[in-house]
Amino acid sequence: MGIEQQYTVKGGDFSHAGSASSHVRKLLKQLEIAPEKIRRIVIALYEAEMNIVAHAISGIVRISLENDAITMVLEDQGPGIPDIEQAMKEGFSTASRKVREMGFGAGMGLANMKRNADLLEITSTVGVGTTVRMTNYF
Ligand SMILES: Nc1ncnc2c1ncn2[C@@H]1O[C@H](COP(=O)(O)OP(=O)(O)O)[C@@H](O)[C@H]1O
Ligand SMILES: [Mg+2]
């Protein structure tokens, strides 16, 4: 296939949040990927995208589609994650009151990404930003 896509995500922009994952859902449907595969990819990507909106300043989502896999790389400028192991725990959240009032900040995103991505790799530098790399196989 060899399809490449790129989306920008703005921190705090809840009105456009989720657009990368909904575009990818449509694309995968057109390519007739199995619905169960699409579901896991879209959940993982949505959570990662929402983490940029909820926690970072801005970010770029890069999607690359091959015959056998999709790779999703989300690179943001933001506060970074000081303790990734702690952040991965279900229920852990540093979401602001404002973010919680919008219905986000349950602390389940990273755990959902772990569950739904075939491969998940997170690197982060405090005060600089976070990069999430996920791969799912078809
Ligand atoms: N891109 C990110 N930049 C900075 N911190 C993040 C990012 N993604 C996750 N985190 C940190 O990890 C915590 C847990 O994330 P998550 O499981 O998605 O829960 P939630 O987003 O509901 O807080 C967040 O509260 C935040 O402290
Ligand atoms: Mg989250």
Structure notes:
The chain is of the alpha+beta class. The protein has one domain: Heat Shock Protein 90, CATH 3.30.565. It contains five helices and five strands. Strands 1-2-3-5-4 form a five-stranded antiparallel beta sheet, with helices on one face. A hairpin with a 3-residue loop joins strand 4 and strand 5. The longest helix is centred in the first third of the chain and has 21 residues, at 35-55. It is globular, with a radius of gyration of 14 Å. The two termini are 12 Å apart. The mean pLDDT is 96. The site of magnesium ion has 5 residues, from helix 2.
Rounded mean pLDDT score:
96
Largest sheet: 5 strands, antiparallel
Q: Count the helices. How many?
A: 5
Broad structural category: alpha+beta
Name given to the CATH architecture: 2-Layer Sandwich
Proportion in β-strands:
25-35%
Estimate the global geometry from the Cα principal axes.
globular
**What is the end-to-end distance?**
12 Å
Percent of residues in helices: 25-40%
Here the CATH topology equals: Heat Shock Protein 90
Order of helices and strands: EHHEEHHHEE
What order do the strands of the largest sheet run in, or round the barrel if closed? 1-2-3-5-4
Low-confidence stretches: none
